Amino acid sequence: MSMASNTPSVYNNASGIPPDPFYGQSPGPNGPYTRAFAVTPGQPLLTMARSLWIGAAGNLTIITRDQVEAITLLNVPVGLLRIWCRAVEATGTTATDIVGLA
């Protein structure tokens, strides 16, 4: 398997990380997620989330990317919620085990 010349070869180093053929490329807004982080309602997100993984169903109060006021989504099922959001509010959120994906 040949790799692009700008891709660092880390396969044989001590970290054990395989080479990344997409090194230096942006995934784009519809591309795969490159970051995952735990979400605690009421606490600042590490970064803008492009989607949320809902581990346990419930209500979810969020502020989307372009809104200033929170909105509550009722009865959000377990699974992937594809919505850009910048905050998950504690008030009104009953869903748990939330993971932000960016």
What does this structure look like?
There is one protein chain. With 102 residues, this protein is mostly beta strands. It has a domain at 36-101. Helix content is 0%, strand content 36%. It is built from no helices and seven strands. It has strands spanning 36-39, 51-56, 58-64, 71-76, 79-81, 85-89, 96-101. The strands form two sheets. The protein has a four-stranded antiparallel beta sheet, with no helix packed on it. It is elongated. The model has no long low-confidence stretch (mean pLDDT 86).
Provide a brief overview of the structure:
The chain has 102 residues and is mainly β. Helix content is 0%, strand content 36%. It has strands at 36-39, 51-56, 58-64, 71-76, 79-81, 85-89, 96-101.
